[in-house]
Amino acid sequence: MNPNHTIEKMRAMRMKTMAELYHQNLSEGLPGELSTDEFLAMLVQAEWEERQTRRITRLIKQAGFRLQAVPTDIDYHARRGLDKTQITRLLSLSFIGKAENIILTGPTGVGKSWLGQAIGHQACHRQIKTRYFGTTHFFDQAKLARLEGTYPKFMKSLNKTSLLILDDFGLHPMDSSDRGLLLDLIDARHGRGSTILCSQIPVSSWHQVIGEGTMADAILDRVVYSSHRIKLNGESLRKKQRLNQ
Fold this sequence. Notes:
The protein has 245 residues and is an alpha/beta fold. It is 56% helix and 11% strand.
């Protein structure tokens, strides 16, 4: 069998990493210390690892994160009220399997958005489909989808997302359209997917921010009682960074 034909077939089947590694070993001489089975296992392992890396990269891009936040950079020394045991447990992502939510609250600049997106990055690295939205941007996208007639498709894609992050929740008062969109989203995801809500507004004020008592009750009942809550405090980290520059 012509090795070049084998390489071309590998490339045609999109086994590019296997093809390149096979070509490299042919050029340099097959490693004599490896059996045929071991050499084949090496090729398959290299292809598998490359595909996993590409998938993770694709998931991170599709998530639409605003920050490149990674769990290894979490600062537990700053006095922000972070419980390392709790954060470690959440980073295990078992809450996603249980369709539980996370609520991150605290004043501006203490790292709510960063922490939410760090958990999101962890999910992507575990190959869990994740999406990130500023809440206002979510409303804008959903309203645009309605106008374009793609609302069912837009919502279906979000409902299939295992982890959804809504940032700056409650930053602006909601109108009736916003409330309806939020209820659609929360109701469809209840018991099926996990949502992280990041907000400067304390949970005790969310009812007022959402407005319209009945809909606020329906939304909060589906979110708050199945949530892990983290209240961050302290000075703005962005302010500290500017002072240290």
